[in-house]
Write a structure and sequence with these properties.
The complex is a heterodimer. Helices cover 75% and strands 1% of the residues of chain A. Chain A is mainly α. Chain A has a two-stranded antiparallel sheet. Chain A is globular. In chain B, strand 16 (306-311) and strand 17 form a beta hairpin. In chain B, the strands form six sheets. In chain B, strands 6-9-10-3-11-12 form a six-stranded mixed sheet, sandwiched between helices. By secondary structure, chain B is α/β, with parallel strands linked by helices. Classes of the chains: A mainly alpha, B alpha/beta. At the A-B interface, helix 10 and helix 11 of A face helix 2, strand 8 and helix 4 of B. Bound molecules: adenosine-5'-triphosphate and magnesium ion (MG). Magnesium ion is lined by residues 43-44, 86, 165, 396-397 of chain B.
Amino acid sequence: MTIAISSGQDRSSLLEKIARTRELTLLALIALIIVAMTFASPHFLSVANFRAISIGMTPNAIIVIGMAILLASGGFDLSVGSVMALSSTVVALLLLAGWSIPMAVAAALLVGACTGLVNGGLVTGFGINPLVATLGTMSIARGIALVMTEGFSVSSLPAEFGAVGKASLAGLPVLFWLTITMVIAFDLAVRHSAFFRQVYFIGANERAAALSGIAVSRVRIVAYVITGILAALAGVLLASRLMSGTPTAGSGLELQVLAAAVIGGASLKGGEGTILGAFLGVVFVALINNAMTMLAVSVYWQMIIIGAVLVIAVALDMMMRRRAG
Amino acid sequence: MTPLLELTAASKSFGPTRALTELNFQLLPGEVHALVGENGAGKSTALGLMYGVIAPDTGSVTVGSQAQQFRSTADARAAGVACVFQELSLAGGLTVAENIFAGHPRQRLGLVDWPRQRTDAAALLDEFELDIDVRKTVDSLAVSARQVVEIAKALSLDARILLLDEPTSALAPDEVDALFAIIEKLKARGIGILYVSHHLSEIFRISDRITVMRDGRKIATHHTAETTEKEIVSQMVGRLATAERVRNKRPIGEPMFRAQEMGLPGIYDDLTFDVRAGEIVGLAGLLGSRSKLIARAVAGLLPPSVGSMELGGATFAPRSLRDAIEAGIAFVPEERKTEGLFLGESNLGNLAAANLKRFRHFGLFQRKAAAEATQDAIGQLEIKTSGPEQPTGALSGGNQQKVLLAKWLETQPRLLVLNEPTKGVDIGAKLKIHEELERCASGGMAILVASSDFHELLALCDRILVVRDGRIVGETDPANFNEDDLLSVASGVQPAPAPDLEGSPS
Ligand SMILES: Nc1ncnc2c1ncn2[C@@H]1O[C@H](COP(=O)(O)OP(=O)(O)OP(=O)(O)O)[C@@H](O)[C@H]1O
Ligand SMILES: [Mg+2]
């Protein structure tokens, strides 16, 4: 991860400075939680627990990549949780219907790409507010998943399909390595590729971006499609791990992911944030959840605490910025 | 010589407004072609056609020998057209270097080549001999520096056609010189430059030809050498140009505002001055002098950490603009688009926004009274609009400026603070605004105005404070000073006349 931090971009840009300090702050907080929990609970610092955390946060960590890109462009996507569920049921149903694994997976990813295309089209083509547009597709995607399965999970999938979800590499889940690789790859791409830099212009000043010759609608649509594909990928991996397609999976996930991205330095106003920061946001939230579970805090209280953490994080950030600006 | 760019019988309407009617226009290689006209004459609309922002209803745009159907600015850029807009079009949170190369970053294999991008950006800015760090965000720059970045951004395209819409409206005189030097260089390379400005002196200095527009039509095209300012002005306004404004002596009263050794480390220092009732005081400074920040300080936006202020004899220590307004100050900001106006709102809404108290009766908004006040302002300042209900965003740049001014004049403040009050306003309207300000002063209002337009300050002010490096380095009486004197004091070439701290104006 340090590669991503120290690679040579415009170092002294204020935006990146803030983002980088945010990343460092989060890393410090994460270390703090780990140290505190090591003393508080004997079960915390164990390979088993670490495996559990890293597997549990995989969907959020993959989806937050897309969400961070969208936030930087001044948009967001509430349909990600539903799309994940839809893709997990699609892949499961197709496997049961006798499709080969690659074909079934490709089809599920295509479903994600299509929902992204619909979201992007609604937002750019019809100028519908992203809140309304993706709230609509969120409901529709969930509905389709439930209709196709009549509300039940789809299980008895072929054993080979579970390989990825269960496999380990160097003592850690393959899912973990996959997530890390994707986070680093996207972080570098967003920092350095000419295409993704456009996203920040659009988020900072859409009109200026258009006047600078940036194809605003096209970039926005691509960002929604990427997010859709990532949500679908999360669905496929979830199905592989659980060995079933779950139409009810991922409800409320969109808000967790949004919260994590904002904790990680993204802003709903657009124009800011990094993939690395957003990922650390997910790690942070996952650790807090894990810690609370270890300390036997009730699930209901966990919701309250996570909500409070989000608000405090953002409020602190606003205060710091006001002072700096 | 074949023209680089040509408009043929181009017309454009916005709803019922005819912005352009059958406009014919040619831009030749290596010429600076000025486009002049009153606010709302259609200049920006014409530029919009050439840069693919607006499509003509009828008529055509030809670049080189090819008729063009620009569907976006990207098309126009590909055809070799670059543009500096009247309204700043930068992304604030991104760095100067990224902004300059927005839409066409320096890249290798799809990755941004940061070092090369920084070097190239710095090279473009170097021509302005300005110390702008290309790694800074645009947000952190003063408005005039942003304007320079905007110009560099257009130059980065290596275009054959450069459209400049009021590029100097935020620039201090020395920056204007730098820009003109660049224009001369580009001209020599055969680049065609379209130059829109309300400053006729600039136009006569730099242009080869002048096209005059009025009400969306072309009135005439002149060779600059063969015409006079007088002729241009009378063609712009459609009648014989009015004579210069006569300055009336106003009675000057007691100090309304007083600053005592006011300072904020790193921004301004040791400011002691006053503004009397009925007096118009100017703040003159070159780029980086921070004269406009001093105006912001008075308006509560950059409160001092040492020293004190007084308003109307009472201690005045605003922590925010709100406090300052409560105390009887009005502040007209420089950036009308981001700080001053709600562009989606109607003129009425904008005017009422600062005057909600006045237009409230038993808690209800008095729409009729607000509409009347708006209609009055439209008449007073000759704002070109279909009426109080038109969205301010649909007005031309200069007319938006007038709405902004009307909004704050309506609050009838004790002290009016203005930053660049006539930015983008045409000559006729400028006189109107100056008259209006004088009228307010005659009624006992104290007025503090910061402007990079020294000509304006000399014409308007009773006293001018010269600012350098956030300090007042001199005080001048406009009666015995001309623009060059002011410039040399502001740049530090000439020692400042001893500041007269008592500030007796007469
Ligand atoms: N988007 C729009 N919607 C409606 N009317 C518009 C729009 N843009 C311009 N207009 C109208 O078209 C006319 C010409 O405007 P334009 O901006 O071209 O003037 P201009 O010559 O650039 O003036 P200025 O010197 O004030 O910048 C004005 O009457 C203006 O109100
Ligand atoms: Mg204009």
